[in-house]
């Protein structure tokens, strides 16, 4: 098992997102239909980052992370030696009472080692420090993402944040109430 270290990332390190291997074999997914969250069999194999184009491209992700940082957000990195193997981004003020876990990626080959859990715990601490009473996430509609967030106390919301829903209508929008003991 690798020895993983964690540290904050600076704005000069946003391009390191290139080091994350986002590939994943997805066979169970979710979709929202009316007022129900529907589980379904799928074949959604996540490709590596693209050089240009949509939300899964380096330019899009770099711009997204720069925007988070420009709005008083922060990034955390997980490292195996010098290699970035996980990245989480935090937006402190999605609304007056809500913070956002804006991004969480762990490289293929490093998943299920506790990296996402460590990031989540740190993001919850950050949210508490900002006075947030809720944490929002737009979860990739895969079984692994939805199961991870629900295991951490997130629940699917039927009233997603309008701007985030417009950006990611296929995602499963979830909210976690933050209790003082979290």
Please, could you describe this protein's structure?
There is one protein chain. By secondary structure, the chain is α+β, with helices and mostly antiparallel strands. The protein has a single domain (4-177), classed as Aminopeptidase, CATH 3.40.630.30. 24% of the residues lie in helices and 36% in strands. The protein contains four helices and nine strands; from the N terminus they run βββαβββαβαβαβ. The strands form two sheets. It has a seven-stranded mixed β-sheet. The radius of gyration is 16 Å and the shape is globular.
Give the tags.
24% helix; alpha+beta; Aminopeptidase; 182 residues; 9 strands; globular; 4 helices; two-stranded antiparallel sheet
């Amino acid at each position: 098992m690798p020895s993983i270290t964690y540290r904050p990332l600076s704005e000069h390190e946003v391009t390191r997102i290139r080091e994350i291997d986002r590939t994943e074999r997805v066979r169970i997914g979710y979709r929202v239909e009316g007022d129900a969250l529907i589980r379904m069999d799928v074949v959604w194999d996540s490709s590596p980052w693209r050089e240009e184009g949509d939300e899964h491209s380096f330019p899009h992700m770099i711009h997204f992370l720069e925007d988070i940082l420009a709005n008083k957000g922060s990034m955390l990195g997980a490292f195996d030696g010098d290699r970035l193997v996980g990245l989480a981004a935090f937006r402190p003020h999605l609304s007056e009472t809500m913070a956002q876990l804006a991004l969480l990626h762990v490289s293929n080959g490093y998943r299920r080692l506790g990296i996402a859990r460590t990031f989540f715990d740190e993001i919850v601490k950050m949210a508490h420090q900002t006075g947030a009473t809720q944490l929002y996430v737009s979860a990739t509609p895969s079984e692994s993402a939805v199961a991870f967030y629900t295991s951490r106390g997130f629940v699917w919301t039927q009233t997603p944040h309008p701007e985030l829903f417009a950006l990611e209508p296929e995602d499963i929008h979830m909210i976690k109430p933050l209790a003082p003991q979290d």
